[in-house]
Amino acid sequence: MPLPAPSPNPNPAPPDAGMSRRSFLRTSAVLTTGLAALAASLKPLLEMNDFPTMERFLQKYYKEMTPEDMEKVLKRIEAEVEKQYGIRPHVRDLKPMDGVEFVYCLNLTRCIGCRKCVHACVAENNQSRNPEIQYIRVLRLPHGSLDIEKAEHNYAPESVPEKGYFYMPVQCQQCKNPPCVKVCPIHATWQETDGITVIDYDWCIGCRYCEAACPYWARRFNFTKPSIPKERLNPDMAYLGNRPRRQGVMEKCHFCIQRTRVGRYPACLEVCPTGARKFGNILDPNSEVSYILKNKRVFIQLKEELGTSPRFFYYFDV
Amino acid sequence: MLRLVLCTQPRSSLVAFGGSARMRPVEGDALTRAGDPMNSQTRTTLVLTGLILAFLALTTLFISNLPGRPLRQPPIPLVNTNFLDTATVRRSYADLVRAGEDLSDFDCYACHEKGKPPPLRYDTNQNLIVPKEHSDIVMGHGSHGRNNNCFNCHNETNLELLQTRDGHEVKFADSPSLCGSCHGPTYRDWEAGAHGRISGFWDRSLGAAERKACVNCHNPHSPHFPSRPPAPGPHPLRPVATASVEPGPNH
């Protein structure tokens, strides 16, 4: 089928049409606007002060790195942190242990809602203090219901616990079937064999799909460059764990990889004054969590109807 | 192309910016009809100048990014390090011994006479009268004031020992077994690690774990876990109205 012939311009320009003042004004208006729009769109680049080094830019995907690559990367991170905070950290790349699958149990009868876990987590995991990034959100719920719609996390009484309420801390549930991992377009977040869903902060592009996919409001985004006071920096760091993040990447609870993968309890558990938090290896029949899941009234995995199968269990004493 | 249109349709600049070729003649005619050519040219210039100014204003707005700038936030104070403290609420006898601290509170025979059980005095409501030497003790163990006899737990013949209800002597350092003699299920949970605090290593092959005793959290004379001020909540970007949800029935 032949293409239709281009129709002749209905109003051809007169051959002597030069640039009149009017057309000059018009053209310059259009040009100015266009240039200004371009400048405005490029302006964020001016505010960028964290240009990646070539090394970081060319860094390989976590799972493709050889041990030598990783060693170089850890050295680079240590140098970067030292340059920024003046403290030489100890950054490690900790791999999951064999025969270990982590499970967290939280006793709702015991939790008094004191929020110590929230702040111990912030201190341990080098989260931004301003703006605040917190992995744990403690919900206050009226007794006799489990309606999250009635939850309140800005409670500020003189003392806790308050009569008629119970408290439910919510953090990353380390799902067995994690929706956040499914939506990540670049596999920057994945589930490790010990059940921890981790994020490679150097691979994350900050699209925030995972934040939208998570039914537990567990993921946090660094809208700005995180601000951590030097004196509160935790120098014991892990690559997939608590090393300082950059602006524009996601982060979330990772069961304190830098602690739990060397056998220690997570920070939120250590600080809990009531012992409401329990953590351990579910594959070990003698662990506390095995006992709890076998013997206690473990009543929920939060939003279990979604089929995410969390590794975070809430239980009651009675 | 744009320049062509602009040059050839001098009187319809408004429409030319809109890019709708169809409407050009109509609009042009309307403008022409509205007055003499000179007048319409002035109008066009005016409109154009207005448009340029508007565009420039918009551009300034874009570049200065006024609406997109984050609200100036008051600095968020760093959290009090008290809230990061992992110490237990109380210190047990074993803790004091380990820390080599003052144990004079446990030196009963500094005041009491050996071999002579101290007398217990009650008021008319059968409430124990706590002597002024022990004024720091609040008798709050058990409901309805029924647990009002010191020697339910203390050994009356040797005050430096405890005793279970069936007469087994228990040292202060082993107090959990005394607690367990009444609170069986809780004791079972505690032994399994499901009740109470454990700190240290979950992997016992890599390090030790310390199981805290009952008295690290509970005052034996008044065991209800003490209430405490909560750590500051999240600082919202904008002030929030705290939702008022009625407390539920207290179970």
Write the SSE topology.
The complex is a heterodimer of chains A (318) and B (251).
Chain A: H1 21-47, H2 54-57, H3 67-85, E1 90-92, E2 102-107, H4 116-124, E3 137-142, E4 165-170, H5 179-183, E5 189-191, E6 197-199, H6 209-213, E7 220-221, E8 236-238, E9 250-251, H7 257-260, H8 267-271, E10 277-281, H9 288-295, E11 297-300, E12 312-316
Parallel strand pairs in A: 1-8, 2-12
Antiparallel strand pairs in A: 2-10, 3-4, 5-6, 7-9, 11-12
Chain B: H1 2-8, H2 13-18, H3 24-34, H4 37-64, H5 93-99, E1 162-163, E2 169-170, H6 175-182, H7 184-192, E3 198-200, E4 209-211
Antiparallel strand pairs in B: 1-2, 3-4
Helix pairs in contact in B: 6-7
3D structure, described in words:
The complex is a heterodimer of chains A (318) and B (251). By secondary structure, chain A is of the alpha+beta class. Helix content of chain A is 27%, strand content 15%. A 4-stranded mixed β-sheet of chain A has the order 10-2-12-11, with helices on one face. The longest helix of chain A is centred in the N-terminal third of the chain and has 27 residues, at 21-47. In chain A, 42% of the residues are buried. The mean pLDDT of chain A is 90. By secondary structure, chain B is mainly α. Chain B has 2 domains: 2-64, no CATH class; 88-216, no CATH class. In chain B, the strands form 2 sheets. Chain B has a two-stranded antiparallel ribbon. In chain B, a hairpin with an 8-residue loop joins β3 (198-200) and β4 (209-211). In chain B, α6 packs across α7. Chains A and B meet through α1, α4, β3, α8 and β10 of A and α1, α4 and β3 of B.
